């Protein structure tokens, strides 16, 4: 079978659902379920904690006993079941419980697909960027579709869109899968070969992980306050959605060429580019509070997020054995994409109350140390 096509299709279908969840879920809790903003934020906050704990601890355990295909199928079924639980739920306590359950299984699908991608890339049959760009395309398509259907049928359509999207993910999970992803883990010495403790024996892994935690966490102010920042710049709601999608479009362009452009670059070189681009991006938002400058800075999302993410995937496939890829992806998802963002969201919110631009400048307190760490360690640890 065509492994490149399989991975591209799975990225596309999953990110269709991610485009429903990431931008709209909090608003859906407020508009469709009657929660106030504080209640919805609290619910999503606990969900973020559950997401981090699940991907850090539960997700790698599944890979000790199941194949990649079986893990993806299981997580999809559980996600669909948890989504259905939202339908009759209305009280704060029940919605909190369902959201914790939902976040314990659904977001883990992302590192599961990324782990499958790592294995396929390591086998030498797949170009990561060419498939990952379809995820970004799926996200853009999803945001566009949801904006249309909510205008026609209201916020209730958000939940049903997730049900339909996950149903398609389930169908994709049931189709023929690359043979390497159907293989069950070898259980001769599971503690030695699959334990996450083995990651820390790779001397450069903690350094690379720390750098991507700093760089990905630094997107917290943008993810959480970019919308209201544009409102403060007197941008109409219609154009805000278009402006925010500019970042994803540049991300798509980058992933389309990433395998070619980055072919001869080391992980440390990619991380240097990401850290420098990220620092410039947040400085621009602070120094020049102008909508056109903000739009220009959106092009740097391909660097601040795209290059950093690609660098970690490259590192995992080049430096780690196949058995450790799920562990690395679980830790990356929990620390870099969940908990660091949650912590820095609080810091960014405090700074935003003082001055909107300060919330972006504050993110440089994490990107600049990332730059220094790379400069100090890249030669010594050869990554």
TrEMBL record:
TM annotation in the entry: 12-30, 42-63, 70-88, 94-121, 133-153, 159-181, 202-225, 237-256, 268-288, 294-317, 329-352, 358-377
Cellular component annotations (GO), alphabetically ordered: plasma membrane
InterPro entries in the cross-refs: HcaT-like, MFS_assoc_dom, MFS_trans_sf
Keyword Heme annotated: no
Residue span, Major facilitator superfamily associated domain: 6-356
Listed Gene3D superfamilies: MFS general substrate transporter like domains
Subcellular location per the Swiss-Prot or TrEMBL entry: Cell inner membrane
GO terms, molecular function: lactose binding; lactose:proton symporter activity
Keywords, sorted A to Z: Cell inner membrane, Cell membrane, Membrane, Transmembrane, Transmembrane helix, Transport
Membrane topology classification: Multi-pass membrane protein
Matching Pfam families: MFS_1_like
SUPFAM superfamilies in alphabetical order: MFS general substrate transporter
Coiled coil: none
Main localisation: membrane
Superkingdom, natural source: Bacteria
Protein name: MFS transporter
